[in-house]
């Protein structure tokens, strides 16, 4: 099963200045938009610019001041 799934895997590398979307935790993220039906709520937030590379797969983003997301 793993071999079959790995055939479709693409290794993505981001560069400084790229724009990315932040995936919101389902049914937990209340800071973006409060909706009656969380199932129809936003799943991604952004796009945001990458300003620094913290690790191999971790990046620091330029978030707006009003976004209540942990930097």
From TrEMBL:
Ranges of residues in domain Tf2-1-like SH3-like? 17-70
User: What Pfam families does its record include?
Assistant: SH3_Tf2-1
The record's listing under PANTHER family reads: CHROMO DOMAIN-CONTAINING PROTEIN, OS04G0603800 PROTEIN
Q: What is this protein called?
A: Tf2-1-like SH3-like domain-containing protein
Q: What is the organism of origin for this protein?
A: Trifolium pratense (Red clover)
Classification of source organism? Eukaryota, Viridiplantae, Streptophyta, Embryophyta, Tracheophyta
């Amino acid at each position: 099963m793993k071999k079959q799934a790995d055939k479709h895997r693409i290794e993505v590398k981001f560069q400084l200045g790229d724009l990315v979307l932040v995936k919101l935790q389902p049914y937990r993220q209340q800071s973006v938009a409060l909706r009656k039906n969380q199932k129809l709520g936003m799943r991604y937030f952004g796009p945001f610019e990458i300003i620094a590379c913290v690790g191999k797969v971790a990046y620091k983003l330029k978030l707006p001041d009003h976004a209540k997301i942990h930097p």
